[in-house]
Amino acid sequence: MSEYVIVTGASRGLGLAICRDLLDSGVSVVALARTYSPELHSLSDAYPDCCHFIEADLADLDALPALCKSIVKRFGRPYGLVNNAAVGHDGVLATMPNGEIDNLMRLNVQSPMLLSKYLLRSMLLNRRGRIINISSIIAKTGFNGLSVYAASKAALEGFSKSLAREVGKAGITVNCVAPGYMQTDMTGDLQGEKLASIKRRSPLGRLASVEDAAAMVSFLLSDKGSAITGTVMTVDAGSTA
Fold first, then answer.
1. Mean of the pLDDT values across residues 44-70?
2. Residue 143 lies inside a defined structural domain of this protein
3. Would you state the pLDDT for residue 135?
4. Which residues are catalytic?
5. Does residue 47 lie within any of the structural domains?
6. Range(s) of the domain holding residue 13
7. For the chain, how long is the longest CA-to-CA vector?
8. Which pLDDT belongs to residue 190?
9. Which of 22, 70, 90, 190 is most open to solvent, judged by the fewest CB atoms within 10 Å of its CB?
């Protein structure tokens, strides 16, 4: 396959929107997710030669080296990696089960690090590539009941900044996109006054959409984003301004 981008958590929400935006722009995609959702299936049907699904549990860290090896063997060296897959357990730290903390940190932090590690090797051989890690405004603003989630996203931002310095001379950029509150399955409980309050904080009077965030990802993956690395691009309709 020609130059392609790997997108994790691609079956729904932002991941699905990223895949759609890339495919509409003529970029081939390898979509990783635990389930082959009807929406992703439809996207694959619309782009049969450019959209390829691989079932993967990215929280299974021991399986990641073989997964990355199989992707490179099947499709060739990747141009880009979008680490979007994440889980957002909420709850106060004092009562959060240790298993939930471990699962969140494995999927939100360790998995993106390891995927970057193994796929970066191909990019180094090409001396060209893009890594984009999906963060959140929560990494900087904090939010009641999301302390562990916030820590995971802050870790991802620190990782991205340092990795950008490691690989920049090889023509590889590393950035984060930090969306604000969006209408996705992860934020599906935001309704009524809580949702209205968030919208009021935005100078635009609305939430950012998954399409807004996906467009930023596509820009950073493009040649137009070649001079941007080691930064966090916030897409939140101005709510943190």
1. 98
2. yes
3. 98
4. 149
5. yes
6. 4-235
7. 52
8. 56
9. 70
